[in-house]
Specification:
Number of domains: 1
Helix content: 25-40%
Structural class: alpha/beta
Strand order of the largest sheet: 3-4-2-5-1-6-7
Number of helices: 11
CATH superfamily: P-loop containing nucleotide triphosphate hydrolases
Shape: globular
CATH class: Alpha Beta
CATH architecture: 3-Layer(aba) Sandwich
Oligomer: single chain
Strand content: 5-15%
Number of strands: 7
Radius of gyration: 18 Å
Distance between the termini: 27 Å
Largest sheet: 7 strands, mixed
Length: about 280
């Protein structure tokens, strides 16, 4: 696939997406860092975009890794101001990236202070939901890359979402961390968002050559067979390299095992979300 295949769009679509299913908002969340959360958000969103699915990626992690994964360094405080002050996000704050059908609302370091400031505002968990509402008519999928913590920023993402996607590293403590996260989801359901659902669990950094990866995969699939993706994301040097070049893996090395895994995951994702055929 050539660079020409990834032409940059310069604005939102000219007209709303009218013939599609309702826009779905998906938060990619895990309170543990280093599990491939941002890697999964960036690359799944990119793969859906090249499958002609208009997709928006929202980076609410103050570390801004999803933003820098596209080679973008932003100082636009619009997302921060929307969360803290309740201001709408201006259309010009939505960034174009290298891939058609994919847009980005970037993170900035300002979000690091939003956690404390949100504690004193009204409807403190509903700010992101309100901010994203005007953009839903332009996209079929909105992905939110969350911080690696169960913070007010993450709670905003959960409340704004129809479902969550949970990346889990194939390691010894995976089930323990998953159980804690699912308890949090139940608390969110009972308090601020009864309709939130777990859309799926994806195994990351998977090495089929090791007994540990295979055992963790078998354990998680035996406990939650309907939630775990058939596709497991392998450990891949190329996946690790791609962010330093400011490109998702399908633009950096589409022949790599990581790119092929995320393309397969995107196909499975569309099947799981009940994608309807368009006329």
């Amino acid at each position: 696939m050539t660079e020409e295949s990834f032409a940059t769009q310069v604005s939102l679509p000219d007209s709303p997406v009218t013939s599609s299913p309702e826009c779905r908002v998906i938060s990619v969340v895990n309170q543990k860092g280093g599990v491939g959360k941002t890697t999964t958000t960036v690359n799944l969103a990119a793969c859906l975009a090249v499958a002609d699915e208009p997709t928006l990626l929202v980076d609410i992690d103050p570390q801004s890794n999803a933003t820098s994964a596209f080679g973008i360094q932003s100082d636009d405080p619009s997302l921060y101001r929307s969360l803290v002050l309740g201001e709408p996000i201006p259309e010009e704050s939505i960034q174009s990236v290298e891939i058609n059908n994919l847009k980005l609302i970037p993170s900035t370091v300002d979000l690091a202070g939003a956690e404390l400031e949100l504690a004193d505002v009204s409807d403190r968990t509903g700010r992101l939901k309100a901010a994203l509402e005007p953009f839903k008519k332009y996209f079929r999928y909105i992905f939110v890359d969350c911080p690696p913590s169960l913070s007010l920023l993450t709670l905003n993402a959960l409340r704004a979402s129809d479902e969550i996607l949970i990346p889990i590293q194939a390691e010894y403590y995976a089930l323990e961390g998953l159980a804690r996260l699912l308890r949090t989801v139940e608390r969110v359901r009972s308090s601020i968002h009864p309709g939130l659902r777990v859309g799926g669990i994806v195994l990351t950094m998977y090495d089929s050559r090791t007994n540990l990866s295979r055992q963790v995969g078998e354990d998680i699939r035996s406990h939650m067979p309907d939630l775990v993706y058939r596709v497991a994301i392998p450990r891949s040097v190329r996946l690790a390299e791609a962010p330093s070049h400011g490109r998702p893996i399908i633009a950096y090395d589409i022949s790599s095992s990581g790119a092929q895994a995320y393309l397969a995951m995107a196909s499975e994702f569309l099947t799981r979300t009940g994608k309807r055929k368009r006329n």
